[in-house]
Amino acid sequence: MTDAAPQFADIALIQRILPHRYPFLLVDKVRDIYVNESCVGIKNVTMNEPQFTGHFPGMPVFPGVMIIEAMAQTSGILVGLSMDLVDKNANVFFMGVDKVKFRRKVVPGDVLELHVKAVRGGGRVWKFEGRAMVGDELACEAEFMAMFDVPKA
């Protein structure tokens, strides 16, 4: 880890980096950002989110694929700050997801901490390791790859 002080991204900065919007923007803030290395995204899981009307009625469970997507969006913030992509209208595309394991249900009231570490990056294609935590409990872990595409001006 570098000696530089960690950075922070609030929702305004997140929206200047990611193209995602409600109801698919799944990161509320990102802290402990060390460019080119790692960061921690925060997702506050609330009952008023649209997926809980059908997943599952009477027993709301935050969908696993959305946990993985939240980790990917968190990694998008890391790359956006690492590659100076603020206000560049960059698109992010999944290229692969591996070694996914779900360890605990995530339910309304939980605060997901999305710990993302860059394994390989610097160009258009990055590889990450991610862990989604609720408190000190592991909810999900995965490895994933993404491609970052910046439209030509």
Task: Write up this protein.
- There is one protein chain.
- The protein is of the alpha+beta class.
- It has one domain: Thiol Ester Dehydrase, Chain A.
- It has two helices and seven strands.
- The protein has a seven-stranded antiparallel sheet with strand order 1-2-3-5-6-7-4.
Order of helices and strands: EHEEHEEEE
CATH architecture: Roll
Largest sheet: 7 strands, antiparallel
Assembly category: single chain
Number of strands: 7
Short description:
By secondary structure, this protein is α+β, with helices and mostly antiparallel strands. It has helices at 11-17, 64-82; strands at 7-9, 29-34, 38-44, 91-102, 111-120, 125-134, 137-149.
Topology:
Elements: E1 7-9, H1 11-17, E2 29-34, E3 38-44, H2 64-82, E4 91-102, E5 111-120, E6 125-134, E7 137-149
List keywords for this structure.
alpha+beta; Thiol Ester Dehydrase, Chain A; 7-stranded antiparallel sheet; globular
